[in-house]
Amino acid sequence: MTDILDTPVATPVYTVPQERKIVTAVPGPKSQELHRRRLEVVPPGVSSALPVYIAKANGAILVDVDGNQFIDLGAGIGVTTIGHTEASVVAAAAAQLHDVTHTLFTITPYEEYVRVAELLAQHTPGDFAKRTVLVNSGAEAVENGVKIARKHTGRNGVAVLEHAYHGRTNLTMAMNYKASPYATGFGPFAGDVYRAPNSYPYHDGLSGAEAAARTIAYLEKTVGAADLACLVVEPIQGEGGFVVPAPGYLTALQEWCTAEGIVFIADEIQSGMARTGEYFASSHFGLVPDMVLSAKGIAGGLPLAGVTGRAEIMDSAQPGGLGGTFGGNPVAAAAAVAVFESIESNDLLAEAKRIETALVGGLTELQQKYDVIGEIRGIGAMIAIELVQPGTASTTKAPNSDAVNAIVSYATQRGVLVLTAGTYGNVLRFLPSLATSDALIADALSVIDEAFAQL
Ligand SMILES: *Cc1c(COP(=O)(O)O)cnc(C)c1O
């Protein structure tokens, strides 16, 4: 295994110039040809938000097969948080490829898995003994978190919140708020999942204490605390539209869970791994969850996910009850070790705060010009704007998904890739990699400004 600490830290050298450049119509002819081939062999259930086929990626830039260069404000939904093809991650994964690619940790173990578990124990909130199970995807982490909480408590109930997103497997389909497109027609669904109101300050106007009281009262009435194994919460909701709960909401829920013997599971799959300027977003709220789920940003683009929890909870699963063929793959685990090292050695938590300043500053100027921008919210490099119908920002806040779609399409044509979110599709979310310079953010926002002007 490559010891990253032995490698001198250098200023990043980019293999692709960090600039936007459009040389064909978008999508270009080669992307269109690939799209034609894809339609023959890939079902429409796997859709693509943006029709450009990518040939190369580096830093904050994606290069498509036609030679167009895009500023990537999505980072594969918050996966390449430390930048596309970041040199130390590539080096660590390449070295690992030569040493060992697979043994199966549940047969013959290896150090990289143990190292990732040590790093997660160190960097997740809470100063107590922890254990980590590594798996392949976010949804698989959610499934394992619920499995372990059920075993530990001897209870079945799973509580989730409105506007939540937890994945596309059978259990997680039942845990999502939105039926379409994630669940429609794919039943029967897992039982014993209960959905409570969340804290959504822009719409409910409640304080954290009031919103928590509402969530708790709902769960006490409709399930009863004694039947709940776990409460699964995204500290900042991802697909739901970067909904940041009111101060005090999450800690009030944690206190209730602790008092009632319910396992509090923080789904930090999108909000974790330095994205918000802390290793995990829970820390912004003083929250110390019993279990933390990580995935997306953990391995710089390689598939890996983790379930990290209090030792006494995690130890309740029987030997052989947890695992899977590819879980904690050595190459993905080596990449994750490099990601942790890079966060430290390049002070990426500070970079996330820099990006917040640049994005919120620029978006605030846009909000003064365009009254469809109802709210700017988020923390670190996880910032969103919620778009409303003209003239409704101080009244009904009626969702405006048409504006979101028009802006995404305009920006794509001009070399800026931006993602949507929100239960009503009326949120634009910015999840740039931490390698995105202030100059690139300013350039991207100038395109978004034009897009708003065209509405
Ligand atoms: C993406 C996501 C998941 C699912 O992760 P996959 O790797 O796509 O299975 C679960 N929870 C949250 C908060 C996510 O953002």
Would you give an account of this structure?
By secondary structure, the protein is an alpha/beta fold. It folds into 2 domains: 15-85 and 347-454, Aspartate Aminotransferase, domain 1 (Alpha-Beta Complex); 89-345, Aspartate Aminotransferase, domain 2 (3-Layer(aba) Sandwich). 37% of the residues lie in helices and 16% in strands. It contains 14 helices and 15 strands. The protein has helices at 29-41, 75-78, 87-99, 111-123, 138-153, 170-175, 201-204, 208-222, 249-260, 311-314, 330-345, 348-369, 401-413, 438-454, and strands spanning 54-58, 61-64, 69-72, 130-135, 157-161, 193-196, 228-233, 263-267, 291-294, 305-310, 373-379, 382-387, 416-417, 419-421, 427-430. The strands form 3 sheets. The chain has a 7-stranded mixed sheet, with helices on both faces. Strands 1-2-3-13 form a 4-stranded mixed sheet. A 4-stranded antiparallel sheet has the order 11-12-15-14. Helix 3 (87-99) packs antiparallel against helix 11 (330-345). The radius of gyration is 22 Å and the shape is globular. The mean pLDDT is 96. Bound molecules: pyridoxal-5'-phosphate. Residues 137-139, 142, 165-167, 234, 238, 267, 269-270, 295-296 line the site of pyridoxal-5'-phosphate. It catalyses: (S)-3-amino-2-methylpropanoate + 2-oxoglutarate = 2-methyl-3-oxopropanoate + L-glutamate; 4-aminobutanoate + 2-oxoglutarate = succinate semialdehyde + L-glutamate. It is an enzyme of class 2 (transferase). Pathway: Amino-acid degradation; 4-aminobutanoate degradation.
